[in-house]
Write a structure and sequence with these properties.
InterPro entries: PC_trans. Its main location: membrane. It is found in: Cell membrane. With about 170 residues, the chain is an all-alpha fold. It has one domain. It has five helices and no strands. Helix 2 packs across helix 4, helix 2 crosses helix 5 and helix 3 packs antiparallel against helix 4. The protein is flat and about 50 Å long. The termini are far apart.
C-alpha cells in the first residue's frame, strides 16, 4: 500500500506537468503550475508574516495562518492573471481566452497547492518527521519544496483541458 501511495503521490501527479506541456499551447500553460504553487507559497509566507493572527490548522502546520492562506490565494491569482494578460498581449493564442483561464486556474491551483502542502504535512506528522530531507537548506528535501506542485499540476491540466474547449 505504501509503495502504491508513493508511486501515485509523486509519479502520477507530477506526470500532469508533461501532459500540460504536450497539450495545445502547453508551453505557455505549464508555467501556471509553478505560478500557482510558488506564488501561493510566497504570498502565504509574507501575508502570514505581516497579518497572520489566526492559526489555520495548528495540528498539521503550526506556523500557517488563515491570513497567510488568503494572501497566498490572492497573490497566486494576481500573478496568474498578469501572466495571462502577458500571454494574450504578446502571443495572441487563437481561440483561447488566457486571462479567464489564468484567473480560474490561479484560484483553483492556489487553493489546491495549499491542500497539497497540508497533505504532505499530515503525512510528516503521522510518521513524526520535520522534513522529507535536507537537500535544500531552509526548505528540507525536494518533496518539501514541491509538495504543493503535486496537487496543482492535475488541477491546472484538467481546468486547461476543459476551459480551452469552453472558452
Amino acid at each position: 500500500m505504501v509503495t502504491f501511495f508513493g508511486f501515485f503521490y509523486v509519479c502520477f501527479l507530477i506526470s500532469h506537468i508533461y501532459l500540460i506541456r504536450e497539450y495545445t499551447y502547453g508551453k505557455f500553460f505549464v508555467w501556471l503550475v509553478f505560478i500557482c504553487a510558488f506564488g501561493c507559497d510566497t504570498g502565504a509566507y509574507f501575508s502570514g508574516m505581516l497579518f497572520g493572527k489566526r492559526k489555520l490548522i495548528p495540528e498539521l502546520s503550526p506556523k500557517k495562518t488563515v491570513e497567510g492562506a488568503v494572501g497566498g490565494v490572492i497573490t497566486a491569482t494576481v500573478v496568474a492573471v498578469v501572466y495571462g494578460i502577458c500571454i494574450e498581449r504578446y502571443f495572441k493564442l487563437e481561440n483561447v481566452n488566457t486571462t479567464i483561464l489564468c484567473l480560474i486556474t490561479g484560484i483553483a491551483g492556489s487553493v489546491l497547492s495549499q491542500i497539497g502542502d497540508l497533505a504532505a504535512s499530515s503525512v510528516k506528522r503521522f510518521v513524526n518527521l520535520k522534513d522529507y530531507g535536507n537537500l535544500i537548506p531552509g526548505h528540507g528535501g525536494i518533496l518539501d519544496r514541491f509538495d504543493s506542485v503535486l496537487l496543482t499540476a492535475p488541477v491546472v491540466y484538467y481546468i486547461m483541458l476543459f476551459l480551452i474547449e469552453v472558452l
